[in-house]
């Protein structure tokens, strides 16, 4: 393919700034059409972003002959339906995180991709951002020696400001999201652990609803032991006071440590030589570096930046962490 022509299914809030405009800013990429079940909102999005066509039916967008690649940005409950339909239609597929409601659905998409020969990439977009590429390089070059432990803390209030609050708040409806805020935010952190440390050997966790504020888990913890013997411990709480909010990942090695917020812009490296803080400017469109890699992959000019098989592993970890007490 000389040009990737995109259709977006689910042109909601996440596509306004984070991803949508980037499809027209990447070389060899063009946004042709958008879809939203609310026709008025779909038309408004297309008008504001100068997108040639809009639809209120995802199947009609998938069948558009001028589109060769589909970006699925709906709530996770409909990811599998649209992904399978797009693959049957011979389209490339780029799927938002979490890729599905659970690991079994992700396996179904992986099997369909294998049978159809279609290309599927998953929007674990932090893999492509300069800040996390810098951390990956530090780890690969053993800047802090051999990694021993990584500690994730994501503690937020009952209505996290990190998340766009929608009228229906689908993120705390397990039927639509797979769980609660953990399912929405943890893929960013847990996928980075898989990207940094490779294949896991063991993982387990537990989840509970502490506050009773809504009908899903608001406290989750878990552990991953990787084949290279790195141990990752994670704690996610969505019921603490505003004063106790935390977003921190701390990676400890035999010769130092690396600390960073997954939703922030600075990395602190501590070694025997001292402490260094490296700041990264915010990106205008946080998915643009990833979309560039996906476009190259779809065109045959690069590797898959995040495969559906990798997402299957991640969803297996999320499923294990989400087990109720």
From TrEMBL:
Keywords: Oxidoreductase. Transmembrane segments: none annotated. It holds the Pfam family GFO_IDH_MocA. Residues 5-124 form the Gfo/Idh/MocA-like oxidoreductase N-terminal domain. InterPro entries: Gfo/Idh/MocA-like_OxRdtase_N, Gfo/Idh/MocA_oxidrdct_glycsds, GFO_IDH_MocA-like_dom, NAD(P)-bd_dom_sf. Residues 132-258 form the GFO/IDH/MocA-like oxidoreductase domain. PANTHER family: BCDNA.GH03377. This is Gfo/Idh/MocA family oxidoreductase. It comes from Mucilaginibacter panaciglaebae.
